[in-house]
Amino acid sequence: MVRARSKTTTAARKKRLRKLTKGFRLSRHNLYRQSRVTLMRARVFAFRDRRAKKRMFRRLWIVRINAACRMRGLRYSEFIHALQLANVALDRKSLSELAIHDPAAFDQVVELAKKHLPKPAAAAK
Q1: Please, what is the average pLDDT of the chain?
Q2: Backbone angles phi, psi at 22, to 5 degrees
Q3: Is residue 17 within 8 Å of residue 36, measured between CB atoms?
Q4: What span, in angstroms and rounded, lies between the C-alpha atoms of 74 and 79?
Q5: What percent of the chain is predicted at pLDDT more than 70?
Q6: Topology, domain 8-115
């Protein structure tokens, strides 16, 4: 009896993998074994970097807010603390956008924060 072979199934699987590895360099896009390993590695990087991207954007927003606050005589940590005391629910992304695209509105937010800053304790003698 003739052995049953699965050429169509295997060919379809390899074709699907080659389609996913389109754009990879050299033999990484057309040699099956190598493309399979490379695709797994690429997916690991993609998974990791989706989370790293969120961290990087948060860092960028904080740097922008800090720069805008210091131009107005306030430190970032004081600014954020004062906004929490004032119950302002703006996130860092929107504060950063305000600082860049609408400085007048950001000035108002800074003034609000300055009003709610805790008073410095008198120096103990």
Answers
A1: 92
A2: -60, 135
A3: yes
A4: 6
A5: 96
A6: c-terminal domain of poly(a) binding protein (1.10.1900)
